Amino acid sequence: MIKVLFVDDHEMVRIGVSSYLSAQPDIDVIAEADNGRTGVELALQLRPDIILMDLVMKEMDGIEATQKIIDSWPDAKIIIVTSFLDDEKVYPALEAGATSYMLKTSKASEIANAVRATYHGQPVLEPEVTGKMMMKMRKQNQHAPHEELTTREMEILLLMAEGKSNQDMADELFIALKTVKTHVSNILSKLQVQDRTQAVIYAFKHSLVK
Description:
Blueprint: E1 2-7, H1 11-22, E2 27-33, H2 36-46, E3 50-53, H3 62-72, E4 78-82, H4 87-96, E5 100-103, H5 108-119, H6 127-141, H7 151-161, H8 166-173, H9 177-191, H10 196-205
Parallel strand pairs: 1-2, 1-3, 3-4, 4-5
């Protein structure tokens, strides 16, 4: 049996979902709590297999409760069950240590399946939550164009900002003029600008030039 603790301040939600879950042959709702503080106490006392956690509750919200449980019991498996999909709720809840994230609009059977999946180590996220996480990851992985420049290309960009010609740069860096031209071409391409002037403007705009 998968032992479940349900923490939610909406009595009707608790009754409805708990009744459905307890009717399953492999799930047993062993306790309920109507606030985060009591939820933390019961979680650490009973050590259920799964904790269903609401987010907005009196006394202590679900994010803080999740964090306190994880701090004392890192292996706890917590499924957020909420009505909220905004970034201010999703990311903090997952960062606090929640394993899965479900919406209260989900069918009871979907929550039951999420309990089983999470119990077996398979996190379950609402499709919209997955989309949000992917967007966040993409943004985090996006680099500023100048971060793609090599050390030599950065040197040349800074010399360009000083007004040096290609020949001046070749002489100063002791490299062939053809090599300088190749570097300049690469710089324009990586910074996604059309000419040297725009490259210099980019350098000043991004505080690359002191």
